[in-house]
Specification:
Layout: E1 7-11, E2 17-18, E3 34-38, H1 77-83, E4 92-97, H2 103-116, E5 121-125, H3 130-139, E6 148-150, H4 155-163, E7 170-174, H5 191-208, E8 211-216, H6 229-233, E9 236-241, E10 248-256, E11 264-270, E12 273-276, H7 280-284, E13 295-302, E14 305-317, E15 325-328, H8 332-346, E16 353-359, H9 371-383, E17 391-393, E18 396-397, E19 403-404, H10 409-418, E20 423-427, E21 440-444, H11 447-453
Parallel strand pairs: 4-8, 4-9, 5-6, 5-7, 7-8, 13-17, 15-16, 17-20, 20-21
Antiparallel strand pairs: 1-2, 1-3, 9-10, 10-11, 11-12, 13-14, 14-16, 18-19
Length: 456
Amino acid sequence: MAKPARSQFVCQNCGAVAARWAGKCAACGEWNTLAEEADAELPPGSGLAGAGRGRAVALETLAAAAEPVVRIPTRLAELDRVTGGGIVPGSALLIGGEPGIGKSTLLLQLAAAFAKAGRRAVYFSGEEAAAQVRLRAERLGLAEAPLALACETNVANILATLAQGRRPDLVVVDSIQTLWADALEAAPGTVSQVRAATQALVRYAKAQGAALVLVGHVTKDGQIAGPKVIEHMVDTVLYFEGDRGHVFRILRAVKNRFGATDEIGVFEMGAEGLREVANPSELFLGDRLASAAGSAVFAGVEGSRPILVEMQALVVQSGLGTPRRAVVGWDASRLAMLLAVIDARCGISFAQHDVYLAVAGGLKIAEPAADLAAAAALLSSIANVALPPDRVYFGEISLSGAVRPAGHMLARLKEAQKLGFKSATLPAAGELDAGGLDLELGRIAHVRSLSEALGQ
């Protein structure tokens, strides 16, 4: 008589396993995330639990010649930039983003581009009916693309479908949280189901040489839902960012085994789908009011691409016992540190003021070199003095108030000159070959120099 399957409780946030249910996960501290799942049996011949002895494998040296990486261009220049030049056959790519941000639209355009190029592309939709996908394709002008479409959530049926006919060049699954396997007694979207489905699809992609693209939901914190092991199983992880109140979207690579990380691609959402933006700096600075106090232009670098973006600050007298600190597009703890440095090193206190800081356009900045631009915007707002409209700022501010050098200084300055800026405030330290630049460079060593220039 077969033994009944034992049950275990798996945290849907971190993947930790517990023997009994509890209201709070002991590993990650989240509440009400433990769900009961059947304990999966080990497959025969796995080499575990005494199933059998393994076999020796051949060892190689690092001096062996490496095969060049073959890439398939996607015909979307911004997507090619993020992935490192195209999609690698046999690779697995995971893309995450908030609902309605444009993930399905981007992947439908990608699959249609593959199909129009004579390659076989298969699109599996687990969240929408075939009629809904056709309506989107008609709106995007892709109805004539020879794309194979199916609405299926069973992993076994998907693998059986892919085994028929010619090997596909691209497989899109939207989304991985909707898939389920017969062997697991758990609901779709749970950790066990998501992990098993991802493993089966990635194994197929590696064996057959088909490029696999998975869509993943995100949590309220903006992370891809499910355990981190899913991100470890794939080759590339992309996040689709942006504010649905704005028309542009940012595709950011956070993991890429075949290219650089932190590379971004910029798209503009329109009635006919996502349009590529070749020069995003003009987009982020398009609605800028240069004569307003509290506005500073930051010359940043995202991956290998220099981008100019406006940082806006508003400092007003507070009527509350505890002044407000609101940040959009930047790290709130970084703002608190910057306010403390300005108070301690420049003698300018924000203790009786509400402080609001925002990155225009919804772009999220994590680069430390944005400190100088943020400080310039804050000092400009509290002094009610507008900064020069044709000047850019970049540099990291330390706790001592010193302005540290930033990387890619020449690329930042060239981008500023290309967009018509005349001057730049940058760190005094760091080597810079300014040959060929027609910019007035103001190099400062301490944030106090910035406050003195504004009469503070």
